[in-house]
Amino acid sequence: MHRESAPLEFPRSLWFRLRTSMRTLPGASSLCALAIATLALSGGCAKIEARDLIRDGNKAYNDGRFVDAIAAYDKAETLEPDGVTMFWNRACAAEAQVLRLKEPETREERRKFADMALRDFQTWYDRLDQKTEEDEKQLHDHRLALLDADERRRGVVAYSSGNHAQAVAAAAREIGTTATIVMPADAPKLKIANTRSHGAEVVLYDRYKEDRAAIGKKIAKERALTLVPPFDDYRVMAGQGTIGLELVEDAERQGVTFDAALVPCSGGGLTSGVATALADLSPRTKVYGVEPAAFDDTARSLKAGERLANTGTTPSICDALMTEKPGELTFPILQRYVSALTVSDEEVLRAMRHAFYELKLVVEPGGAAAFAAVLSNKIDLRGKTVAVILSGGNVDAEMFDRALGAVN
Fold first, then answer.
1. 350 with 247, same domain?
2. Domain span at residue 194?
3. Do the beta carbons of residue 179 and residue 172 sit within 8 Å?
4. Sign of dihedral through CA atoms 85, 91, 94, 100?
């Protein structure tokens, strides 16, 4: 529920300073009626021009002018060769052109476009995993950039099931400091391996018997490290809130206003950051935090008016969203701006499957929670323009294979 009388503890001066510095950043890309928010936080004139060309290509595609669309995407590639969206769009246009051409008189031309589609689909797929990690790291670059010289010399410690862990580890290495990351022993092996690959020391714990925050604070005190929480930190929340800025900017370019925005919710950092941005820039947009049914602490806390913890030990496939309870700093913002929804593991698996087959996106369970709420009709969205944030793609092969076998 929205509670307009709830106190808002978010430091507005910090938020507006970060917001102003991020105004030129590119927005999230859109697919179908959903705004799929990526965490792209690097800008530049070339990228803006490339985005305009991609938009022109999309219009040509929608008009059935597939060759013109491909030409626009070709120009976009010269301006932003490291992009991701363009490869997917051009592959779709090439595939559509193949289907339009008839055999046998156009056999060579069909082969040319078929080869293009295959190459671009493969390039898009290869870059997708890289982008998820790089983009999330940008969020934490902002937090780690605030470290003074002494703090950088001593290093940082963080606790996370994987996404925040990788981001902090990568950002720490980039600025020349060290990172110690507290991770659950049952986290996906891919996330643990990726975190270690960035040079971080990984300390494993039992998420059902031990308190990760207590472990992180103990390490920080013993080693004089700076603690970087995954959500209960205004600076992290502000960085994550820039996704809300991107959503608004993307909507403005398309001449629409979002009626609702759905965000995967754990401790509330991402959700409260996005909600704060939308409350300021798009106040008619209703924000929903979506969490696993077995870890519905946000939903129960909002209903009770106080922070309630998850007490059971029933696991969820959404490892990134298995937080004990909403953050002390995030909860007042969630009370003010956010409503909560829950989804089952089976609904999440179906959403992962749909994202892969229909949107060609590889999404981890926690990252697919908001999408699952849409596909499962948790709220009535008929006739509405909706933003859905897919917040991660770090998924083990075994879990993804399970998702692909899910029955719609």
1. yes
2. 141-227
3. yes
4. negative
Beta-bridged to residue 291, according to DSSP, are: 342
- Quote the CA–CA distance of 299 and 213 in Å, as a whole number: 22
Mutual angle of helices 85-100 and 66-79, in 10-degree steps: 160
Structural element, H or E, at residue 142: helix 107-144
Distance in angstroms (rounded) separating the CA atoms of residues 242 and 245: 5
Alpha helix locations (H) across 198-344? 212-223, 234-254, 269-281, 297-304, 330-337
- Sheet bearing 338-343, strands edge to edge: 29-31, 34-36, 386-388, 260-264, 286-292, 338-343
Q: Can you give the CATH number for the domain in which 90 is found? A: 1.25.40.10
Question: What is the pLDDT, as a whole number, of residue 331?
Answer: 94
Residue 20, domain member (yes or no) = no
Of 66, 100, 131, the position where a domain reaches its end is: 131
Q: What is the pLDDT of residue 61?
A: 79
* H or E element, residue 203: strand 201-205
Q: What is the pLDDT of residue 125?
A: 54
Same structural domain, 216 and 239: no
Q: What is the pLDDT of residues 238-282, one digit of tens each?
A: 778 888 888 998 888 889 999 999 999 999 999 998 999 899 889
What's the CA dihedral at 393, 160, 200, 206 to 10 degrees?
-120
How far apart CA 262 and CA 290 sit, in angstroms, is 7
Residue 193 neighbours by CB under 8 Å, 6+ apart: none
**Same domain flag for 252 and 373:** yes
Q: Which residue has the tokens 């965490």?
A: 39
Same domain assignment for residues 265 and 356: yes
CB 328 within 8 A of CB 353: no
Whether residues 317 and 178 fall in one domain: no
Write out residues in the chain with pLDDT < 50, as ranges.
Answer: 1-44, 129-135, 138-139
Whichever domain contains 158, its CATH number is 3.40.50.1100
Out of 131, 165, 192, pick the residue that ends a domain.
131
At 179 the pLDDT is 95
**Structure-block tokens of residue 350:** 């179906």
Residue 339 has φ and ψ, to the nearest 5°, of -110, 155
User: What pTM was estimated for this model as a whole?
Assistant: 0.66
Distance CA 252, CA 248 (A): 6
226 forms beta bridges with: 156
